[in-house]
Amino acid sequence: MLNRQGRPSAAGEGADVLHPTFTGNRALLIEEALLFETGRVEVTGVDIEEAGAFTPRLGGLERKEPIGLPGFSEPEAMRHFVRLSQKNFGIDTGLFPLGSCTMKHNPRLNEKMARLPGFGDIHPLQPVSTVPGAIELIDRLAHYLKTLTGMPAVAMSPKAGAHGELCGMMAIKAAIAARGEGETRTVVLVPESAHGTNPATAALIGFTVEPIPARPDGTVDPADVRKALGPSVAAIMLTNPNTCGLFEKDVKAIAEAVHEAGAYFYCDGANFNAIVGKVRPGDLGVDAMHINLHKTFSTPHGGGGPGAGPVVLSDKLAPYAPFPFLAEGRLVENESQAPQGTEPFGRLVAFHGQMGMFTRAMAYMLSHGADGMRQASEDAVLSANYIRASLQDLMSAPFGDQPCMHEALFDDSWLKDTGVTTLDFAKAMIDEGYHPMTMYFPLVVHGAMLIEPTESESKASLDLFIATLRDLAMAARRGETERFSGAPYHAPRRRMDETRAARQPILRWTPPEPIKDAAE
């Protein structure tokens, strides 16, 4: 069905048929057109003087024709982007079962601190001598990260979790090369329950990746690791807690086996938010671990950055931390400034451009204190186990009744013969006002549904979420497939063909064919 503007109908088709509107709007649910559909290329909301005579300096690459972008009045532009923002789902809208992996509550106090003069307005090209407060904040934050992890050193420059993985693995590669084993230790072991960026990072810097299977309880067996170890193994990349939401109970035995074989233990610290104040990774034998500040210490995630993924390092890897780094309270930016005994593998970034992320994380730590951060971990684990216990009579948990950490994992075996898939179930959640949980990941579980409520949701909020999922689960079991197969019905747009969109993306907008009026 096409509306008056010639676009596919939005959700709520029944209402459109029974009570059509000329505009396509449905009260405050305004049908938002593309800028190219509503703008006019011949106008603009800003008066710009005609350029005088000048000599182009673009080497013949300057534009030969008008740019062709649509113009708007100021109110039109403002309304367009406000209405688009109202179609977004975010943590300020409702519970986000994707959890800290993508979005969790960020206290507004932290945002205020990040905008303080001296933090929010400094420039990367300022002389270091003019930013002593920023240097001190980075140094203090680094101290807290080392204290929380039980590790002696930290590289603060990586700008994301995957960037941190790269930093840690490059430090491992440099340490192996310094031992004269760079040509022989070329294999990295990666459990099947690891984050997907782990094997990608190892492969990117020239390692060969060998998988380690998960045992039936979802964790890694030290015996399987020992079988895979040998003189060619450089490291293992283990996520703990792992992507099944489980703590690797044999992590110390795995670390001991890895070290005995002369390899290094890289721990993916993306799930550190489940164990802060409870477990120090350094005590487990970890040699390197990145910390996603956006997951554990509240800073915003996504949107293109800048992010922050500091990497803590053991004594064996500390000398290889990249430039720039702090030593005795001063910023070391190149080889001439490096203390004796250090062999930085190079430089990952030009500047500490993620100053705002550091400031937010520091504000979070100071406002919570040691006991508050420990409680946040405990509450995250409690919330996830509450959801698991409240749903497992209707939804199948692949690893039985064992407690989970910060996220509860379900599979799709309970949907067998219902005609409803994991994707259908997730789309129906949208109609109920919830963003879907993580779907089809981790890969070791068929039709996975991974739910992370975080530590900041109230019991009342969790209870409503649980009741909603129970209602959906019972509807699926009753065979109410129509509720799922066409979902979402109430979103601004109906279900998309996501596979086709990924494989055949339309990257250029073209005007639709005009709708001809019916003959009188």
Can you walk me through this structure?
- The protein is of the alpha/beta class and 520 residues long.
- It contains 15 helices and 12 strands.
- The protein has a 7-stranded mixed β-sheet with strand order 1-7-6-5-4-2-3, sandwiched between helices. It has a 3-stranded antiparallel β-sheet with strand order 10-12-11. It has a two-stranded antiparallel ribbon with strand order 8-9.
- The protein is globular and about 80 Å long.
- The chain starts with 12 loop residues before the first helix and ends in a 17-residue tail after the last helix.
- Residues 1-9 have low confidence and may be disordered.
Give the structure's gist in a few sentences.
Its EC number is 1.4.4.2. The chain has 520 residues and is of the alpha/beta class.
Blueprint (SSEs and pairs):
Layout: H1 13-18, H2 35-38, H3 74-86, H4 108-114, H5 132-149, E1 153-155, H6 161-178, E2 187-191, H7 197-204, E3 208-212, H8 222-228, E4 233-239, H9 251-260, E5 264-268, E6 288-290, H10 293-296, E7 311-313, E8 325-327, E9 330-332, H11 355-391, E10 408-410, H12 422-431, E11 438-439, E12 449-451, H13 459-477, H14 482-485, H15 498-503
Parallel strand pairs: 2-3, 2-4, 4-5, 5-6
Antiparallel strand pairs: 1-7, 6-7, 8-9, 10-12, 11-12
Helix pairs in contact: 4-11, 5-11, 6-7, 11-13
